[in-house]
Specification:
Organism: Pseudoramibacter porci
Protein name: DUF2922 domain-containing protein
Pfam families: DUF2922
Helix content: 10-25%
Largest sheet: 4 strands, antiparallel
InterPro entries: DUF2922
């Protein structure tokens, strides 16, 4: 059995398009307010974009937990 945790984030671009980013193995003890602050800091730093198309805001964020269990085939 393996449990994975990811943060799936959508960012609004200056062009009106949306860019997706998945952050694996994030610290799941972070409060939603802390996640929001860090994402807003990424936007403010201008750290993200596609070419000259800059990220202008956070559109959404989801915590995704996946539990994978092998099926006994023998």
């Amino acid at each position: 059995m393996a449990v994975t945790k990811e943060l799936n984030v959508k960012f609004n671009l200056a062009s009106g398009d949306v860019m997706g980013l998945t952050i694996g193995d994030f610290k799941d003890s972070l409060l939603d307010s802390e996640v929001k602050t860090q994402l807003d800091n990424m936007v403010a730093a201008g750290a993200l974009g596609i070419g000259a198309d800059a990220v202008v805001s956070v559109a959404s964020a989801q915590r995704i937990t996946t539990d994978k269990t092998d099926v006994a085939l023998a």
